[in-house]
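Progress note, sequence design subtask.
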């Protein structure tokens, strides 16, 4: 058994997004909605999507294989592999078992972990399991890998522009450049039917849009206030958002993230003493007697605090939205796409010593706020530089994707929907359009067994 280790966190990351997208301006015209409904109203620019050539197994294989290759990982040095996803294609067999095909080739089969599922929170649950394992008495000295992936699709209508797809793979271990704070995770878990997928014959969810927003903001209120309370136990001078260099959120769509930062400022406003409130929040005294639970749809309050928080949003949150704005909601990897975006927005020198909070939310509902410190240690600095350089290469692929017209996108979605439960099945989507190194579905046989290959 290995001894207790320090600075446990993320050593390396890899992000995957599809090679094709639909432009949200084009989609507005195609759907015959008002100009700006998706681009301004939702804050989205482009939406990545998968044809029937890709499924949850293939996108996770792609992200994992890239992480292994880029970081020259010895597969025998991995003792835990966890997956977070809500894209379920088998009620029994985990995605993790498909990923084991990469390890079994090398005879590396002594690897703990399986899948975690609860809407967009599964990736965070898998991440916490892996962090906890490295910090526990069960740890055997090897590293862990976390893979989070999803394909978010909706039926025709108002929700379809909030789709997306992607996967992230993270290498977890000690002496990391991105270190997880101990003892300050703040969770809020309760039951709600805001977004759920009870129809196992369909990819599409049941969504109560208004309730979903209320649940998200309520979870944010609860997690943020408890997080601040726990932070003040370790640092009495902790002043909430003002003490943080960044604030990252799960992003169903970018506009909700901007509203959420305004919501964080409203919580700071309510928590401030009368004298602090007057000094820090000038011109907002009309909201002095407002109660959190009565303000989720108060447009005047929302607008006032979004205006107040604009400079804070530009500094602490907006840099994290580049991937979300250009790919869409990736579900479990969404928050970690935000982390990737935040990291590549600055140089390693600008990041050293910074602290930022992350809010993870999964409908139904499960949520946690936690914090990461960027280690000041010199050896971690070189690891940070390697991590950021690698992510810059990945994010640059956004500009190499192919734009697909909305009519073609709609046809490809119809093919996915029509054949969702078909077996045997041979996909018809183009292989040529895929990025090199992408895994794709070759066939589903009459026993519903899936076969994959990797594009060279």
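Output:
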């Amino acid at each position: 058994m290995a001894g207790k280790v320090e600075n446990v966190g993320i050593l390396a990351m890899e992000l995957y997004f599809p090679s094709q997208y639909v432009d949200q301006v084009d989609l507005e015209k195609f759907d015959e909605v008002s100009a700006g409904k998706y681009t301004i109203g939702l804050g989205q620019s482009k939406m990545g999507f998968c044809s029937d050539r890709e499924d949850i197994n293939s996108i996770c294989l792609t992200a994992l294989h890239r992480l292994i290759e880029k970081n020259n990982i010895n597969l025998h040095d991995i003792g835990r592999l966890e997956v977070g996803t809500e894209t379920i294609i088998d009620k029994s067999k985990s995605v993790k078992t498909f990923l084991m095909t990469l390890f079994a080739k090398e005879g590396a089969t002594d690897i703990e972990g399986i899948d975690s599922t609860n809407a967009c929170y599964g990736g965070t649950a898998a991440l916490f399991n892996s962090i906890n394992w490295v910090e526990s008495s069960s740890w055997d000295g090897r590293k862990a890998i976390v893979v989070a992936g999803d394909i978010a699709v909706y039926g025709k209508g108002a929700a379809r522009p909030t789709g997306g797809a992607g996967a992230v793979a993270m290498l977890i271990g000690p002496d990391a450049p991105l270190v997880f704070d101990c003892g300050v995770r703040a969770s809020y878990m309760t039951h709600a039917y805001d977004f759920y997928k009870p129809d196992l014959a369909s990819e599409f969810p049941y969504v109560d849009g208004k309730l979903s927003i209320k649940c998200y903001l309520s979870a944010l209120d609860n997690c943020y206030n408890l997080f601040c309370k726990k932070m003040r136990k370790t640092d009495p001078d902790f002043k909430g958002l003002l003490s943080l260099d960044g604030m990252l959120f799960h992003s169903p769509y970018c506009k909700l993230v901007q509203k959420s930062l305004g919501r964080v400022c409203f919580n700071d406003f309510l928590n401030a003493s009368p004298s602090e409130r007057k000094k820090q929040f000038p011109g907002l005294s009309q909201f002095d007697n407002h109660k959190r639970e009565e303000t989720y749809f108060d447009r005047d309050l929302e607008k006032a605090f979004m205006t107040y928080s604009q400079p804070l949003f530009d500094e602490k949150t907006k840099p994290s939205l580049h991937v979300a704005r250009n790919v869409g909601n990736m579900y479990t990897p969404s928050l970690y796409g935000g982390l990737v975006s935040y990291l590549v927005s600055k140089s390693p020198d600008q990041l050293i010593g910074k602290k930022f909070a992350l809010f993870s939310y999964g409908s139904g509902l499960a949520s946690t706020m936690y914090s990461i410190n960027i280690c000041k240690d010199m050896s971690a600095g070189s690891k940070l530089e390697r991590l950021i350089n690698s992510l810059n290469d990945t994010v640059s692929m956004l500009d190499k994707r192919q734009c697909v017209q909305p009519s073609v996108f709609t046809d490809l979605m119809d093919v996915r929907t029509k054949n969702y439960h078909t077996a045997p099945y041979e996909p018809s989507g183009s292989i040529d359009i895929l990025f090199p190194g992408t895994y794709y579905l070759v066939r589903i046989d009459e026993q519903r067994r899936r076969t994959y290959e990797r594009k060279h």
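The CA atoms of residues 127 and 265 lie 28 Å apart. Work on this subtask will continue into the next period as scheduled.
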